[in-house]
Amino acid sequence: MTRLMSGIFASVAVAAGVYGYAALQGGTSMPSNPLIGAAYAQETEVDTSTIVEMVQGAEDAPVTLIEYASYTCPHCANFHQGTYKKLKQDYIDTGKVKFIYREVYFDRYGLWASMIARCGGPEKFFGISDLIYKGQSDWARAGGATEIVDALRKIGRLAGLEEEQLEACLQDGTKAQTLVSWYQENATEHGIESTPSFILNGKKIENQSYDAFKTLIDAELDG
Fold this sequence. Notes:
Layout: H1 7-23, E1 54-56, E2 63-69, H2 74-81, H3 83-92, E3 97-103, H4 108-117, H5 122-134, H6 136-139, H7 145-158, H8 163-170, H9 173-190, E4 197-200, E5 203-206, H10 210-222
Parallel strand pairs: 2-3
Antiparallel strand pairs: 1-3, 2-4, 4-5
Helix pairs in contact: 1-9, 4-5, 4-7
Function: May be required for disulfide bond formation in some proteins.
Family: Belongs to the thioredoxin family. DsbA subfamily.
GO molecular function, one term: isomerase activity
């Protein structure tokens, strides 16, 4: 994917998505909190310090790799099912790379997936993210909003989350708005215009093969 929601458009789109989603309530329990005032997110300062960075690897690793990704991005799913697993085995788990995952929101579905992934805290985040990416072609095409959120709920339950816990996470409108503001801050800071995008020791790089990542990381390790 190459387009990101930006500025006021992002806030309006997410607000409309959550509000429209709540309006569909009937036989199925749906998130009920619209993002009050989200259309004015650019004019209202939001404290994003409450958002937890999702990190793998040694805190003092010599190389830091930040990934910007969307749960609805097929290229991101491909990266996580291939290159990421090799990077984790060879660099992250061995203490050479500190890996930071940051969500990007193209649409409300990616935001809902993010809220499910974060629902279990840092301990479950990467495991749930793996399930979300593995099942992307199924849940993202499940149908309308009702079907998609039900499919995401199933992923959450598969990861061991309780139903009440999932509902609380999905209905947390304040958290949703804060996540959108956090994403906008990060994307602006690093000039993110597509996903997946990466920041390697402060330098922006594009998605590429494992061998290309390896060459770049090894160069950083060699100093």
